[in-house]
Amino acid sequence: MLSFKEYFEEAELTQRTGHKGFTGRVFVYFNINLSDKLKTPYFSVKNMSTGRVIGHETSFMVRDATFKVSAAGNERVNREGKKNVHAGVVGYLVHEEPRALDTPVTYNPYKYKTFVKVADETPVHSADLVSFANRRLTAENVK
Predict the structure, then answer these.
(1) What's the domain count of the chain?
(2) Tally of CB atoms within 10 A around 77
(3) Each residue of 73-89: pLDDT tens digit?
(4) In a domain, 4, yes or no
(5) CA dihedral in degrees (98, 126, 112, 47; nearest 10)?
(6) Domain limits at 108?
(7) Is 11 part of any domain?
């Protein structure tokens, strides 16, 4: 049985679904704190126009994607040894069931300055489609 605090946190999360049906540009990033708190991987979806988080999701897809990494944020992580939000994917939400795509992509601030292909660690800057599911990113038509 959930405690009141856990119930309240889950209810708050359920209410944060403003991204459903949203058609504008979004910035998506892995939310470490929320994922640890709820014991499941969650991504935060931020409206690029307002800069506000409009929802949280465990799996979805983004089209016309650009992979962004703040150089200053990356340096701060390496200097302080503490993670912060400085990397994510900018694009448009795709309102269909997520599926695995052909190219696995990753980002580790301690190893890379950009997002990279898992297979050969070559930098990735954009993709036609990106799938977020189970803490994994896969992409299609990577550039």
Answers:
(1) 1
(2) 18
(3) 999 999 998 888 999 99
(4) no
(5) -70
(6) 16-142
(7) no
